[in-house]
């Protein structure tokens, strides 16, 4: 399969994910509103990356009194580290806005042109940029959360765990109070070794990892270990230890096995960290299957609880 075909497949896959998100009961009303009617702001930072910011919707009392600082959700897109865009999550951002949450959907450098740890550096830089710009954005830097799918969930997990990646801004990293991860690969060594040898398909796990690292896990085990969130749990920073986690994972996922989420959640809990795993019985790597309503409710309650003052 040509590189063009792979990227076209990835775009079609992304187009499937977010209508599914928009179909969630709590997201439907906002997803029907055209993105052009929303007060989007696009910023360029972190060496030329672009971020789409959407402020929280003000209720009647807030509108009269003027805007007050809101919590913010950092949104990190998926796409196998080699495709996807910040605009993939606009439907989710509109739903978050109606929940009283600001959001920032970010781009990061893509493989194979950029090898790891570029993607982790960019995600961390975006979080630091939010902290720097909190007053200008009208958000509360001490009330930050995250949402990521697949490769984006992997990068978000690394960021929340304060994995050792190069600092690109001389600012103390803000702690994420809570994160939602959907379909996250968390042990890249095990993922490589349990995956088929075939590199031809666009959803080939080994193809994605070869693009990200340039080598397989057998040749670059140390790099794969550094890139695996699972191996950072035993060295949590004081900031990261207080993060709450909600993992969403399809039991029929053949791209990232649900065992990756199960092992990660168990390791977090063993370290004294608040972590819940919601297994989606008939869902694969894309979408939430027949439990969309429950997922929407769970995410909403999770953010409301962990981001309250």
Automatic annotation (TrEMBL):
Lipid biosynthesis found in the keyword field: no
Pfam families per record: BD-FAE
Cleavable signal peptide: 1-35
Residue ranges constituting the BD-FAE-like domain according to the UniProt record: 68-268
Keyword vocabulary terms for this entry: Hydrolase, Signal
GO MF annotation list: hydrolase activity
Protein name: Alpha/beta hydrolase
Record lineage: Bacteria, Pseudomonadati, Pseudomonadota, Betaproteobacteria, Burkholderiales
